[in-house]
Each structure stands twice: as structure tokens, then as C-alpha cells.
Amino acid sequence: MRNALLIPLGAGVVSAILHLSVTLGSPGAFLLAYFAQLPLAATGLAFGVTQAAVAAAFAAILVALFSPGVGALSLFIITSALPILMVVHFALQNRTDEEGNVVWYPLGRILVWLSLLGIAAFVVAYVVFMQGDGGIRGAIETYLKSILSGFAQTDQAAVDAMTATMARMFPGVAAASWILMNIINCVLAQRFLVATDNNIRPKPVYSDIEMPVWPAGIVVLGVILAIFGGEPGFFGFNILLIASIPFFFIGLAVLHSISAAWPGRPLALAGVYLFLILALWPAAFVAVLGVLEFWLRLRDRAKARRSNKGNE
């Protein structure tokens, strides 16, 4: 029993250290905090959700001890522990089909759950700040102005215009960053476990990722609300951004699949990812591609073409 606890307790220590590194204030330490989920994800995907819960609980105790106050502990539970436990819970679910094959819970559905969790967090924050001056958007603008005010010789009119624009999309972008953080940590954990032969779930084929079409209804609702402008537009626009994230990854899977026959494929994909990082707005087209995939089935067509060429 004691030996069985050593790994999750050790994972909890590492997770807490990474999470608390943000208190050092340096950019490098801030980046380390993004990987606080990695030990939890590795523990869960290797030993199960119970062991991951033990690691998360021990990490939470350490965070509470070394960073007293509700803020740090709440941040750890909401941004690191809760989503990882949810991902591990679903990722390790499986069933046996009629032919006796083990079928694992679809990755696309896990993406949908993460997106719904992000939407729920946004809705809760929206309600919590509703009574404040300007609501959640006013709180974000105040926070952004406090940061930009540190720059010397800054035109106030330009600052106001910039903060108003940034505040409009800040919740959706923050949620997208958080979901991406979850995905990166889980993928890295799975890769490490596969390399060391400690994984429970076999390595997925990410280019084959599928998801149900019903989340597109949430995207449509966000678009409708965004058209109205004002407070409904703010709410709808951010719901739209968060709900589009699973479709963005479907779009990336489409790009990886159809690019298999491209000459210089690694360089082309590297250019696509660099463009996405630098410009950001092309992500909208990738998400639209993910929605259209439900009807166009571009990956199936690409596989069929490759199969036909192989048979010639």
C-alpha cells in the first residue's frame, strides 16, 4: 500500500512545485506553471483516475500550505486538477464491440467535454462579476489598463480602444489557451507513457479524431447572439470562441490527413502552424474546415485516393 502511494504522492509534489513556480515572477517560471498538469495526467493515464485524484489532492494540500489564500488553491483546482481528472476519467473508459475489439472513449468527445467545461467556467465568471461595475468585461478592462498603464508615453485614447477590443475576446482566448494547455499536457503524458510502456490506453491516431455534430448548435447560438452586439454580443462571441475549439482540432486533423500526399509535407505543416501562431485569425478558417468535415468527409476521400494509388 505504501509503495502504491509513492508515485501519486511524488506526482503531487512535482505538480505543486510547477504550479507554485509562477510566484517567482519570472517569465520562465510562469511557463513552468503551464506543465503543472503533466504529472497528474501521466499518473492518471498510467494507473487510473483514483491515483490521479490522490496526486491532485496531495498537490492541492501543498499549494494551500505554501501559498495561503483561496486564490492559488482555487486556481490549481479549477485549471489543473479538475480538468485532468475529467480527461483521465473519460480517456480510460472502454467497451468491447460485437467483434470482441476494445473500443476506447472517442477523443473528440473528450474535446467536447473540455469545451463545455470552459463554457461553464465562463458562464460562472460572467454571473459572479455581473453585479460589478461593467460586469466581467469591465473587470477585464480594468485589469488590462493596469498592465498597459506601466508603459511610458502611452496614448490614453489608444489604450482605451485597445483594452475594449481585447476585453471583448479575452474570456474566449483565455479559455482556448487553457484547453490547449490541457491537451498538450495530456498528449505529452501519453507519449511518455507509450515510450516507457506504462500506458493503459493505446496511442491514439490523432488524425482520425471524430466528434458529434451537436456542438455545432452551440456555435450557431454564439453567432446569433454575437450579431446583436452589446452585452448579448459579448456573451455570444465568447461562447462562439470556446465552442469552436473542438472543431479547430478536427480541422487540424483534416489538414494532417489531406497533406499526407503533399511533397515537402513536414515543411508545409510547419508553415501552417507558424502562420496560426503568428496571425491567430486563420484559426477561424481551420475551425470552419472542421465543421465542414461532417459533410465533406475530406479525410475519407484522401484515404480513398491514397488507397487507389497504392493498388495501381
Please explain how this structure is put together.
- The chain is built from 14 helices and two strands.
- It is an all-alpha fold.
- The protein has a two-stranded antiparallel sheet.
- Strand 1 (94-96) and strand 2 (102-104) form a beta hairpin.
- Helix 1 (2-20) runs antiparallel to helix 3, helix 3 (37-47) runs parallel beside helix 5 (70-91) and helix 8 packs parallel to helix 10.
- The longest helix has 40 residues, at 156-195.
- It starts with a helix and ends with a helix.
- The mean pLDDT is 86.
Attribute tags:
312 residues; mainly alpha; two-stranded antiparallel sheet; 2 strands
What's the gyration radius in Å? 21 Å
Which whole number gives the mean pLDDT?
86
* Unreliable residue runs: none
The spatial strand order of the largest sheet comes to: 1-2
Q: Give the biggest sheet.
A: 2 strands, antiparallel
Which structural class fits the helix and strand makeup? mainly alpha
What fraction strand? under 5%
The global form is: globular
How many DSSP helices? 14
Order of helices and strands: HHHHHEEHHHHHHHHH
Q: Total number of β-strand segments?
A: 2
